[in-house]
């Protein structure tokens, strides 16, 4: 039997914080057809970016965008303007599912959005 001696190093990487969306419920501000929106849906934190988003329930003319807050969090926000006729489908249930890139962990938020004429 032989013995080997020497020095070595081990790098330990801390686990990422749990992936969260905050808030994950509660109504979004009411919107009006044809008027630009800039609502914050939720703030994403934890997990490992880049994130993948699945966003459903938006009225025609409205899209979701990701904004880097520069502090390790990201805001999911609405942009655009609800199209004419959008009020007929109101209220909308805006649902966001975010998935982190390392573990496929997910977090969800569902928030109602009312559109008027």
What can you see in these coordinates?
This protein is mainly beta. The protein has a single domain, classed as Immunoglobulin-like. It has no helices and nine strands. The chain has strands spanning 20-22, 31-32, 40-45, 52-56, 62-68, 74-80, 92-99, 106-113, 115-116. A four-stranded antiparallel beta sheet has the order 1-3-6-5, with no helix packed on it. It has a three-stranded antiparallel beta sheet with strand order 4-7-8, with no helix packed on it. A hairpin with a 5-residue loop joins β5 and β6.
Summarize the structure.
The chain has a single domain, classed as Immunoglobulin-like (Sandwich), CATH 2.60.40. It is 0% helix and 41% strand. The chain has no helices and nine strands.
Keywords for this entry:
three-stranded antiparallel beta sheet, 9 strands, 117 residues, four-stranded antiparallel beta sheet, Immunoglobulin-like, mainly beta, rod-shaped
Low-pLDDT runs: none
The level-1 CATH class: Mainly Beta
Structural class of the secondary elements?
mainly beta
Give the beta-strand count.
9
Q: Kindly report the spatial arrangement of strands forming the biggest sheet.
A: 1-3-6-5
Question: Which fold name is given in CATH as the topology?
Answer: Immunoglobulin-like
Report Rg. Answer: 21 Å
- Mind describing the biggest β-sheet? 4 strands, antiparallel
**Share of β-strand residues:** 35-45%
Number of helices: 0
- Helix percentage: under 10%
Shape designation: rod-shaped
**SSE series:** EEEEEEEEE
Give the end-to-end Cα distance, rounded to a whole number of Å: 85 Å
Counted up, domains total: 1
CATH architectural designation: Sandwich
Average of pLDDT: 92
Oligomer: single chain
């Amino acid at each position: 039997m032989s013995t080997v001696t020497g020095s070595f190093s081990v790098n330990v990487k801390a686990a990422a914080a749990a992936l969260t969306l905050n808030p994950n419920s509660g109504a979004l501000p009411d919107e009006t057809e044809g008027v630009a929106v800039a609502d914050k849906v939720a703030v994403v934190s934890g997990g490992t970016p880049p994130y993948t988003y699945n966003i459903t329930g938006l009225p025609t003319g409205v899209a979701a965008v990701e904004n880097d807050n520069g502090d390790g969090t990201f805001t999911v926000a609405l942009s655009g303007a609800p199209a004419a006729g959008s009020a007929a489908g109101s209220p909308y249930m805006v649902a966001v599912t975010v998935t982190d890139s390392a573990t496929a962990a997910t977090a969800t938020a569902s928030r109602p959005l009312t559109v008027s004429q």
